[in-house]
Automatic annotation (TrEMBL):
ANK repeats: 63-95
Stretches of the chain forming a coiled coil according to its record: none
A Pfam family it matches: Ank_2
Highest taxon in the source lineage: Eukaryota
Residue ranges with Polar residues bias: 170-180
Annotated region described as Disordered, given as residue ranges: 133-180
UniProt-recorded name of the protein: Ankyrin repeat domain-containing protein 37 isoform X1
PANTHER family: ANK_REP_REGION DOMAIN-CONTAINING PROTEIN, ANKYRIN REPEAT DOMAIN-CONTAINING PROTEIN 37
UniProt keyword terms in alphabetical order: ANK repeat, Repeat
GO CC, alphabetical: cytoplasm
Amino acid sequence: MLLWDSNPEPRGPSPLLKAGTEVNLAAAAFVQSPAHLAAGGGHAFFLLWQFQTGANLDQQDWLGETPIHKAAKVGSLECLTLLVASQASIDLRNNNGQTAEDLALAFGFLECAQFLMRVKQIQSKKAEAQCDSSLHDSDESIHTDATTRQKRACEMNRPIGKKRRKSNGKGVSSKHNIKV
C-alpha cells in the first residue's frame, strides 16, 4: 500500500498524486489509512508527508484507533511527537475505551506514556489559562474597579515614613502632631 518513487529526478507530482489518489483512503478490510500504517510502522517521515498532503490525523480505523494510537502501540516517540505537534487529538478513545497513553502503558512504552501525560497536562493548563483570560476580558471593568479598590485599601493601611493614619483617615505626624 505504501508506494515510494525512488527516481531521484524531480518530475513534479508523483504519479500517485496525478492519479488523484485520496490521502485518507483506507484499506477496505481494516479501514486503515496510509497515516495509520506510517504511524504503526514508526515511519515519521512518511507520516509527516501524509500530514502535509492533508491526511486526517484523527481518522479512526475498525478498532477505533487513530494514528496516535498506532504510534503509541509500537512505542514510536518520534511519530507521537509529530502527531502532537500536528494537533492530533490525544484524548480520543478506541473501541475498548483506551487512549494512546493507555496503550503505551499496556504495551510497555513508559517513555511514550509519560510524554503523552505531560502533553495532556500542558494542554489542560493552556485551556485553563484561556478560560481565565476570557473571563478576565469579559469582566475587565469589574476587575479594574476591584483592583483599584484593593490598591487604595493597601495604600491606606501601609505606613508612609514616620506618618501613621488615624481612624478618621487624616494623616498625623507621630513626633510633632502636625496635620498633613
